[in-house]
Amino acid sequence: MHKYLQFLINFLIAVIFCLSFTDCGLLNKQKSTEYSVYDVQNYLDQAIRGNKTSNSLLKNIIDSSFTLPIIFEQIKIDSINLNNNKIFTIVLQHKNPFYNRFALYDKDLNLLLIDKSLNGVTELKNYFKENALNIEVKDAFVSKDSAIISRLSIYRQKESTFALVYRAYTKLILPDNTYTQDIVSSVKDSVSTVIISAKDGEIGRDVFLYDNSMNKYVSSGNTFEKIVLTEVSNLLIQPQKPQLIYDLARRADEIDDPSYFFQMNHFLINVEKGWTLFKNYNASGNLKKSLTGFKYINDSLNSSIFIAPLAGNDKTENYVTSKLSNKSKGKYTVFFSDAIEDNNTVVRYFEYTCANRKFLLMIQINKSIFKTSKKYFEDIINSFVIDC
Known about the structure:
Layout: H1 2-21, H2 37-48, H3 52-57, E1 74-82, E2 85-93, E3 101-105, E4 111-115, E5 120-129, E6 132-143, E7 147-158, E8 161-173, E9 178-186, E10 190-197, E11 201-211, E12 216-218, H4 223-233, E13 249-251, H5 258-265, E14 267-268, E15 276-283, E16 291-298, E17 303-309, E18 326-329, E19 333-336, E20 340-342, E21 345-354, E22 357-366, H6 367-372, H7 374-382, E23 385-386
Antiparallel strand pairs: 1-2, 2-3, 3-4, 5-6, 6-7, 7-8, 8-9, 9-10, 10-11, 11-12, 13-15, 14-23, 15-16, 16-17, 17-22, 18-19, 19-21, 20-21, 21-22
């Protein structure tokens, strides 16, 4: 009995010594949190309801400017096993694309990518290529009530993050025809596509070359994009449904990097933070007939800028009643109207022509702000450039 008590005392002393001076694998060991899809779902549910702590864990996937709670039409959460890591994917879909989100996180919920420019996601898949994980997302939207447009976006792992390396239209369904753009070859330096019309068969091809400085595949011709824009602009249909259905409204500082935006849309205009961009916006106010383009809105200034490409022989006079009686010529030929006062708003119209490109620009400014900030708006107009 004495030997047993002595052994017990010595054991307790050893344990106390261990706990006091070493971690012994029992104390001071930080247990690493292993998140699951269930955990991510729980944090997301709380974030949508307005819980700031949960939203912070998800790196503010829900913008603080949103009115909460938000009722999403679809929420998809999944995980991808990547070596010793885990990638969580989140897709949020809302009837208003402004709220749509596609986000990637690692196993510790570090944000790898967030894309706020997707419409209704129709398909998501992943695969390994170029020694990296690639994630393909297909989305679709409707324009002018009758044109269904699909896109493909490819995100590629690059070290400890992901980047959008390829984005292009893949299908245009019209009442009387269907156009498709399919990838026929994809290698490290290029992506080759074939363009097919249901009526006429193969009508063209395109090549997207990898630009290291932009970390994207880009096309110098954007052949299929031009077909989509031309066909949709030629639809003689007066839309009855809301047309804010492409991409999303984004803060100016969240727009694609300028060089990529210029490459894709063939123009740039320098607006500061506070302006929100709506792509594929169908404008009809102050116009004789509707026109699809890009609209920048600044709520605090109660002002907006609308920019639309004009195809072929189309011209501004087809859309505005005001005379473009002024003209200037430099790098571009510019016809423009005088400032027109309409109730509490000042409106001006511009038509820019350069080589084979033509744009209509309409600016609407709150009258009281125009009087005090005229130079501010003149600087914005003067910043407009075209890819000639």
